[in-house]
Write a structure and sequence with these properties.
Layout lengths: L2 H19 L15 H11 L4 H14 L5 H10 L3 H13 L33 H9 L3 H11 L6 E2 H8 L3 H13 L4 E5 L2 E5 L19 H17 L5 H14 L1 H7 L12 H18 L4
Antiparallel strand pairs: 1-3, 2-3
Helix pairs in contact: 1-2, 1-10, 1-13, 2-4, 2-5, 2-10, 6-7, 7-8, 8-9, 10-12
Length: 297
């Protein structure tokens, strides 16, 4: 199996794990990390469009529980992931089946998908459903997502407003307004340190009951950007000469440095030179696939 095939398979399986964690009845283990609904929807539209079993369950969930999705954040996530067209195609079939009208990409051709009746949700207590649970309690807004992020951090963690905005996918202004309203209510603590405000959830906050044990909360938007870009690169270079492939692979690996850091993914070994980089690059792609295959991180 090639490295790119491993990455694609791992991506599809992890998408399935996300839907299982949200109540989808598919074979496999549920994602044990905090699921990002918008990133999962966009990744499904982009990477799982030919996976009938996953696409049907995703459609089931979106039609039944689409009101838990932040439509503005969904569109922003699609733009950042360069998957606006894929989202429009998925949203078109979702809207036709009675789900929310999310996409502004009018005229999109609906994906070939249909409802399967394969979603069962009794409650939102599972850690993977933290974002969904907080939105159900506090509304589909920046406040719920900021709280989910702070809850997923170790007690005592302080975060800058800019980092919170990046991780939650909201503008810095919207994140700051949400934080200030919660600070006034005594829900979060915010102190000025240096040139920026540092925000934390109080160690004794009763909200910690929503997530009593530490759970990984990856930056799923960044993770899916890495996976999508690497899979697109493989397709683009399928018939390119070896020398050109190595150059393009190195450039791609270098450009993804910040995303890899944000996503908590391993970096390619850029110290390897010449033709040896091809094998090193494949080993790195396999390492990415290994992280995606581990539903606990």
């Amino acid at each position: 199996m090639s490295a790119s095939t491993s990455l694609r398979r791992a991506s599809i399986d992890r998408i399935a794990a996300g839907w299982i964690a949200l109540g989808g009845q598919l074979e496999g283990d549920p994602d044990a990390t905090v699921v990002d609904p918008e990133a999962l929807i966009v990744a499904t539209a982009e990477l799982a469009r030919d996976e009938d079993r996953i696409l049907g369950v995703a459609l089931d969930w979106c039609v039944a529980y689409g009101d838990a999705v932040n439509s503005a954040r969904l569109r922003r996530t699609a733009r950042v992931m360069d998957s606006t067209a894929a989202l429009a195609s998925f949203a078109a079939v979702g809207g036709a089946c009675g789900g929310p009208k999310w996409s502004d990409g009018g005229g999109a051709t609906p994906m070939a998908a249909s409802l399967r009746g394969k979603v069962a949700v009794r409650d939102l207590s599972a850690p993977a459903r933290l974002v969904w649970r907080l939105r159900s309690a506090f509304g589909v807004n920046a406040r719920a997502d900021v709280l989910a992020l702070l809850l997923s951090c170790p007690a005592g963690t302080e975060m800058r407003v800019a980092d919170i905005a990046r991780r939650t996918g909201f503008s810095k202004r919207n994140a700051a307004l949400a934080i200030e309203s919660m600070r006034l209510a005594g829900v979060v603590e915010a102190d000025r340190k240096g040139n920026s405000d540092r925000v934390a959830l109080p160690v004794d906050s009763p909200l910690r009951a929503f997530l009593p044990s530490p759970v990984a909360a990856p930056d799923w938007t960044s993770r899916w950007i890495v996976a999508i870009e690497m899979l697109r690169l493989t397709e683009r270079l399928a018939d390119a000469p070896d020398g050109a492939v190595i150059v393009e692979e190195r450039l791609a690996a270098e450009s993804l440095g910040p995303r890899l850091r944000d996503a908590g993914l391993p970096r390619a070994d850029l110290t390897v030179r010449g033709s040896a980089f091809a094998a090193s690059f494949d080993a790195w792609i396999e390492a990415l696939a290994a992280v995606l295959s581990d539903v606990a991180r």
